[in-house]
Amino acid sequence: MDQGKRMKLYKLLNSDGEVYESAEKGQLGGNSREKIYGTLDCTAANNALGNNIYENYRVFFANESVAIAAGYRPCGRCLKSEYKKWKESQEHPELQG
């Protein structure tokens, strides 16, 4: 790699909710205010991106397990089946392992 070129680094959240820099782009985006994660092409998130306030709360995750460990829930629009499972677990906590 050319010494003059710097590698692009991405800011991601780890499972503790702390920001770290990664050479790899996050697989999922999220909203730190609402504690929701979803796909990078989620229509709900992308529609809100023009809102500067929303952009202040935008975060990224390496993968789903990190997002869950950080306390985020799946988006009801772009991750419907994951959201349904999450919702059922909230309504019936006794069914959790």
Automatic annotation (TrEMBL):
Residues annotated as domain Ada DNA repair metal-binding: 30-78
| Source organism, top-level taxon | Bacteria
For whether the record's keyword set contains Magnesium, the answer is no
The yes or no answer to whether the keyword Ubl conjugation is present is: no
InterPro entries, alphabetized: Ada-like_dom_sf (IPR035451), Ada_DNA_repair_Zn-bd (IPR004026)
Per UniProt, the keywords (alphabetical) are: Activator
Protein name from the UniProt record: Metal-binding protein
Q: Which organism is it from?
A: Microbulbifer hydrolyticus
